[in-house]
Amino acid sequence: MISVVMITMNEEKAIETVVTDIRKQVPDAEILIVDSSRDRTAEIAESLGVKVIKQFPPRGYGPAMDMALRSGSGDVIITMDCDNTYPAKDIPELARLVLEEGYDLVDGSRLKKKPEAMPWINYLANAGFAFMASVLFLRWLTDLHSGMRAYRKTLIDSLKYEAKGAALPVELLLRPIRMGYKVKTVFIDYFERVGVSTMRPLESAYWTVRRILAVRFGK
């Protein structure tokens, strides 16, 4: 079974499109959101048969994603953003690589080249952090912050990480690599988002560096 999990905050403009696209690709998948919205996101999601877990008041990206990952019941957990930036058409292939090819984590990298939908400042920051991690982990890495990945459920169940704070995808990629899990990168498309971004660049940069160093030099 496949679980597609997302965290949502005021995504009422995009959620119906995103859920519809997911259903077209994996009709039998469990779709789950951890929602901290003030708009109709949860109401729309429930009307579409999505499992909704409320986290209000909001506790931040990390705790919300941690809850989403650990609440999925499938053998493979697919993460996506709920702003229509990621291609639902790639879900079956990401899941297949876990379920049939034996990978524990498949990372959907947005950065084969600069996506048209990504501002230059974001692209350069992402590329710089990926280069830093590549040097420290002696492995070619291209996108530490991708929101679209496939995780084997048993990996999530056994993985210990710091949920608090921003940039959790960085640790969710690097820690399994350090622990010797079988990790693969595939390149995916990345589209213009629907709605307003809630990312805080300086906070994200601080937590990115902190997580890279903590995983590389910590326990």
Give a quick set of tags describing it:
219 residues, alpha/beta, Spore Coat Polysaccharide Biosynthesis Protein SpsA, Chain A, seven-stranded mixed sheet, 7 strands, 16% strand
Q: In a nutshell, what does this entry contain?
A:
The chain is of the alpha/beta class and 219 residues long. It has one domain (2-217): Spore Coat Polysaccharide Biosynthesis Protein SpsA, Chain A. It is 42% helix and 16% strand.
* Structure summary, number of beta strands: 7
Number of domains: 1
CATH H-level superfamily: Spore Coat Polysaccharide Biosynthesis Protein SpsA, Chain A
CATH topology: Spore Coat Polysaccharide Biosynthesis Protein SpsA, Chain A
**Overall morphology:** globular
CATH top level class name: Alpha Beta
Helix content: 40-55%
Strand content: 15-25%
- Which spans have pLDDT < 50 for at least 5 consecutive residues? none
Distance N to C terminus: 33 Å
Strand-pairing-aware structural class: alpha/beta
* Spatial strand sequence of the major β-sheet: 3-2-1-4-6-5-7
- What is the makeup of the main sheet? 7 strands, mixed
Mean pLDDT: 93
Report the order of strands and helices. EHEHEHEHEHEHHEH
Judging by the overall fold, what is the CATH architecture? Alpha-Beta Complex
Tally of helical runs: 8
**For the CA atoms, what is the radius of gyration?**
16 Å
